[in-house]
Specification:
The chain is an alpha/beta fold. It has one domain: Rossmann fold, CATH 3.40.50.300. The chain is 34% helix and 19% strand. It has nine helices and twelve strands. The strands form three sheets. Strands 5-6-2-7-1-8-9-12 form an eight-stranded mixed β-sheet, sandwiched between helices. The protein is globular, with a radius of gyration of 18 Å.
Length: 283
């Protein structure tokens, strides 16, 4: 696969109706990858695209909490094998977190993890989707490489923070996806700037301009820079991410702009795929 061309699933596969698979990845944990994934999925849905979200972070599935799915909720099983995704906020979601107890530790080795990933992904009846956003496990090791190669990926979004250690891992993430010829749609920088809620003073606590330098060096887009804002975390913790909690807010606007660029890039790569047109205006 190269040049933005998607490997098509076999006819009759539960992925055969999915037009674009977008993986959201990070070189390390704790950079806001899952928060980016859920808000990207919600923003795509808000833009009118039929969207799914697959929580592939096997060791730390957080999407059920972020989407406010009640503990103990399980996907409906049909034909004694296939799962119907949970529908919430106009997106379809499935996660290993919906299949096991929330306190259960996933003590799986690499092959078991990859097998579980493939089974959940392929045994979920996603239906017809414009986008399936995949929240990948953090890291750049053999597991991530195997998962990337087992999914018909249209493009990857790399998430980082401004710290040098996070930026170094973000570079490794880009190199990983380039190695398997998956297009990089761009970089998202979380915790980019902090604005004091009392005095309004702004400060780049974790560094300044790191993601933009990576984007420039690798000739990919800087899709967006998110502030260090307690509301982003609090909204996900109560099951209402920024795009749905404050749809007209600044943070939601950034995620919506990211969603537009992701959709535009994939539409440019596949102009005849029948996706809805996007109109950008200053209104």
């Amino acid at each position: 696969m190269s040049n933005g061309q998607t490997i098509k699933p076999n006819p009759g596969s539960n992925l055969s109706g999915v037009k674009n698979v977008v993986v959201v990845a990070s070189g390390k944990g704790g950079v806001g990858k899952s928060t980016t994934a859920v808000n990207l999925a919600l923003a795509l849905a808000k833009k009118g695209y039929s969207t799914g979200l697959f929580d592939a972070d096997i060791y730390g599935p957080s999407q059920p909490l972020m989407l406010g799915i009640a503990p103990g909720t399980r996907p409906e099983v049909v034909d004694q094998k296939f799962m119907l995704p949970i529908e919430v906020y106009d997106i379809k979601c499935n996660s290993v977190g919906l299949l096991v107890d929330e306190n259960q530790a996933m003590a799986w080795r690499g092959p078991m993890m990859v097998g579980a990933f493939n089974q959940i992904l392929n045994d979920t009846r996603w239906g017809d989707l414009d986008f399936l956003v995949v929240d990948m496990p953090p890291g750049t090791g053999d597991i991530q490489l195997s998962l990337a190669q087992s999914v018909p990926v249209s493009g990857a979004v790399i998430v980082t923070t401004p710290q040098d250690v996070a930026l170094l891992d973000a570079k490794r993430g880009i190199e990983l996806f380039r190695k398997v010829e998956i297009p990089i749609l761009g970089v998202v920088e979380n915790m980019s700037i902090h604005i004091c809620s009392n005095c309004g003073h702004s400060e780049h606590i974790f560094g300044d301009g790191g993601a933009s330098r990576i984007a420039e060096n690798y000739q990919v887009e800087l899709l967006g820079e998110l502030p260090l804002d307690a509301n982003i975390r609090q909204q996900c913790d109560v099951g209402a991410p920024s795009v749905v909690a404050e749809p007209d807010g600044i943070v939601a606007g950034i995620y919506l702009a990211i969603a537009c660029r992701v959709a535009e890039q994939l539409a440019e790569a596949k102009p005849a795929d029948g996706m809805p047109n996007i109109t950008i205006s200053d209104d």
